[in-house]
Every structure is written in C-alpha cells, then in structure tokens.
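Sample intake sheet
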Amino acid sequence: MPTDYSCQVLTAGFSFHRKPYAGIHPDGVKNYLLRLQTDGRCRARIDGEMSLVDAGDLLLFSPDEPYELKIDNERNPMGERLVESGDYHIFFNGSWVDEWWERHKRPNRIKVELTESLLTLFRQLVLEQRRISNPYPEISSYYMRILCLEVDRLLAEHPTITNTNYVAYEIKNYIEENASSLFKLEDVATHVGISVSRGVHLFKEAFGKSIMQYTLDVRLNMARERIIFSPMTLEHVAESSGFNNYTYFHRVFRSRFGMSPKEFRLIHREQM
C-alpha cells in the first residue's frame, strides 16, 4: 500500500520534567511543531517575549519561527514553587501541512480544554510513533491531519479566549461529552470549580443561552441522528440521549422539529 507523505509525523512524544530544562532554537526547529501543555507550567517565547505557559496551552510554530522553551521553578496553584511540566509534542511536515498552515493566520498559542477527545489524538500519535514495525505509516498521517483540522475548529469556535470565557468553553465541552447522561447544574459547576450562579452567568454571557437550553439542543440533535440511523426503539433513543422521561422527550421533540419522533423516523427513512 503506498504511503502518503504529504503529511508526515517525524517525532511524537510525551515528556514530564521535574528538573530544569532549556532549549533555544533562534532559527526555528526546521519543522512544524505542536506542543500541548498538560501539567504544571513552563515558559516559552511567544510573539517575541518569554511568557508563562499553563496546562491547556497549545503552542504552534512553523519551521522558521524562533523557538525557546524554559522549564524552571514556577509557582503552582497551591503557591508552591517547584519544577513540574508535562507536555505532548509533535514535529511534522509535508506539502499538505504547508497548505493547511497557510489557510489561516495562526497564533503561537491557543487556550484549549484538555478534553479526552483531544488528548486521545495526541496519545494515538505517540503510540503510532512507538511501533517498531509499522507497515501502515499512513495511519499517523491521517491522525495528524485530524489533529490539524481539530486545531482549525478550535480557532473557529473560540479564536480569542480569556480566562473568563475559557470557563464557559469548559462548561460547553462538559455538556457535549456528558449530554447522554443525566447531570445537574451542580455537577457542571463542580467540574469547572466555580459556583452554580457564576457558571450560569458566564455561559449565558458567552453563548447567549442557558446551560440547560444548550444541553437540550445537544440531546435533541443526538436523538435526531439516532432516530434516523439507529435501530433503537424510540424509548431507547430518548433514554440514551439523556431524557429520562419519554413523555417529556416526545413533547420537546415535536416542539423543535414540528412532528413526533415516530413521524420523523418514518419520513426520513422513506427518503433513504
């Protein structure tokens, strides 16, 4: 099977530092670099200045951009000063990557939510690079493309993130990942470490709708897809989409889509 090297992963790894480290590349690292801070803190040269990098900071560098990284004593959230820094890092290149990079103006740093889906992409790329015998290197290429496109989506959804609206996006991601199960506003607030009232206010300010309104939107979209494409009973669709009451599900579904779940299934399956 031919390998498509238009997007090639050169190195993918995970590092955890408990001792000081410094790396300086004034002429760039000669390949594209994605570095995701997962634990602790460090400092990196961003927009010409050494800046603090926290967990959830995704760094992006093109081949010729100056790159400098310093891991030293930093004060953690508990006020302790220690050396602690964990990160995923991927060096990659290729003609597809060149075209991808040029599509948008890319900042050196994006604040992201450390979701399981994002971390899984980094983990999978690391695992692929560790394979001693790998007859399918194009798999890494495809994973890398998905990761690059995920970066585009992150930029499109929240191009400028402050510490305040970052919490709102944490709430949004929590809803999307947990919509199929029942949760309360208290569960959401506990997850992001703030009060319920503060979480409700920040989410409404960022997205123009309440947490529960957005949760309902996600659940209804989930149910709609399952009604069309799955063999589940309508009661099972409702339950697996986060509704514990079929009567309520039936009512809100009809209100949103103008027909009952049964009518919706019949119409859309006739069109398939």
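Comment: The first strand starts at residue 8 and ends at 17. The chain has ten helices and ten strands.
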